[in-house]
């Protein structure tokens, strides 16, 4: 089972990666830029595995660059309290 198959698992996975990046001293701006790049990749190259991912993909696809960066930033905020916080 892929982490993409379940919304809760996906948020936990993203939360774990976020905590790992922060623990290694990655700046918030860099985290947000990476989230934007990942969001773009997922929207263009990966099929949605659940309804939440489909909604995010659809929003991403109609958004302009500034709005996509806002979506990426909101995803970072969403997963800040997810995963195994170390």
Brief synopsis:
With 86 residues, this protein is an all-alpha fold. 72% of the residues lie in helices and 0% in strands. InterPro entries: DUF3243, Uncharacterised_YmfJ, YmfJ/YflH_sf.
Tell me how many strands there are: 0
> Helical percent range?
over 70%
What structural class do helix, strand and pairing data support?
A: mainly alpha
Please tell me what the overall shape is: globular
CATH architecture: Orthogonal Bundle
| Helix and strand run | HHHH
CATH topology: Cytochrome Bc1 Complex, Chain D, domain 2
Average pLDDT, all residues: 88
Describe the structure.
There is one protein chain. The protein is mainly α. The chain has one domain (3-79): Cytochrome Bc1 Complex, Chain D, domain 2. It is built from 4 helices and no strands. It has helices at 7-23, 28-45, 51-62, 65-79. α2 packs across α3 (51-62).
Considering the chains and any ligands shown, give keywords for the structure.
single chain; 86 residues; Cytochrome Bc1 Complex, Chain D, domain 2; globular; YmfJ/YflH_sf; Uncharacterised_YmfJ; DUF3243; DUF3243 domain-containing protein
